[in-house]
């Protein structure tokens, strides 16, 4: 049995969707979880309450990761809470701005890269002093990084950057005993992919998947928790497809 008791974890964007499911999965395995949120304070507090009601330890923590100093501020707060050791960092917070190439604005492009790439990079940088040997970093990539799905070229480029970061961070941090991986979900029914709640969206998603149901956040959260655990101790530098067999 995987056991994360005694371990500390930070999950960004944990107020809802895949981040929430990841926080709950880590807490189920015994980790103390810092539930980061941007704007959804009430939702984040609800996640904390759910974890505490099941006997776990959790705390909500706010930071705007679109702001240049957001990751630095978050890392400072995390260090004030957990002290000298963070075992699991799940950098999940992200945004998507679907749109055809002609309609994508400079602001869209910059916002996407700020939240989806700059923030994870500097969060890792700022937390490095407390990520020790045995720690695990899990980033969130996407099916869109390696397959053309929908009108997502700018968003997809941010996830391609995450796949690149995974390999370079893993190579750089391996000698410190820190593992770095990503999960690459396909379509998951969350607020970000709310189209999956429509008939047309559902048909689109199922049309490219081998398994014929729409993924739920828990389908991803369980894999995130696994990658964070010592059970995954020999998985490193990989973006693990968690997409029910999409675009095979
Ligand atoms: P979601 O929109 O439900 O959740 C995103 C989370 O990120 C929210 O908690 C939100 O508050 C947080 N966030 C966004 N901008 C922020 C900011 N500026 N500061 C702080 N927090 C911020 O989406 P989701 O589907 O749960 O997405 C989670 C991750 O999974 C993202 O990185 C996304 O790109 C990735 N992903 C999602 C899907 C999908 O189909 N849903 C597929 C592949 C990858």
> Which strands sit side by side, in order, in the main sheet?
3-2-1-4-5-6-7
CATH superfamily: NAD(P)-binding Rossmann-like Domain
Which of globular, elongated, flat, extended, rod-shaped describes the shape?
A: globular
Give me the count of strands. Answer: 7
CATH class: Alpha Beta
What does the radius of gyration come to? 17 Å
Proportion of residues in β-strands: 5-15%
User: What is the total number of structural domains?
Assistant: 1
Tell me the number of helical segments per DSSP (H or I, 4 or more residues long): 7
Spell out which ligands are present: nicotinamide-adenine-dinucleotide
Order of helices and strands: EHEHEHEHEHEHHE
The biggest beta sheet, please? 7 strands, parallel
CATH architecture: 3-Layer(aba) Sandwich
CATH topology call: Rossmann fold
Helical content class:
40-55%
State the end-to-end CA separation.
31 Å
């Amino acid at each position: 049995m995987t056991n994360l008791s005694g371990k500390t974890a930070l999950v960004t964007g944990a107020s809802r969707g895949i981040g929430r499911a990841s926080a709950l999965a880590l807490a189920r395995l015994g980790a103390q979880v810092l539930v980061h949120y941007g704007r959804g304070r009430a939702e984040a507090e609800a996640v904390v309450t759910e974890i505490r009601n099941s006997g776990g330890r959790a705390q909500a923590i706010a930071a705007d990761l679109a702001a240049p100093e957001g990751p630095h501020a978050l890392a400072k707060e995390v260090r004030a809470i957990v002290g000298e050791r963070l075992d699991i960092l799940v950098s999940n917070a992200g945004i998507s701005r679907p749109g055809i190439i002609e309609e994508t604005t400079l602001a869209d492009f910059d916002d996407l890269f700020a939240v989806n790439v700059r923030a994870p990079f500097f969060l890792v940088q700022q937390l490095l002093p407390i990520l020790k040997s045995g720690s695990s970093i899990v980033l969130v990539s996407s099916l869109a990084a390696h397959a053309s799905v929908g009108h997502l070229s700018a968003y997809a480029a941010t996830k391609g950057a995450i796949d690149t970061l995974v390999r370079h961070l893993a190579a750089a941090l391996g000698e410190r005993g820190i593992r770095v991986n990503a999960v690459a979900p396909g379509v998951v029914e969350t607020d970000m992919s709310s189209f999956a709640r429509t008939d047309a969206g559902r048909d689109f998603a199922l049309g490219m998947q081998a398994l014929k149901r729409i993924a739920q956040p828990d389908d991803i959260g369980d894999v995130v928790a696994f990658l964070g655990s010592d059970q995954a101790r020999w998985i490193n530098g990989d973006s693990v497809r968690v997409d029910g067999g999409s675009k095979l």
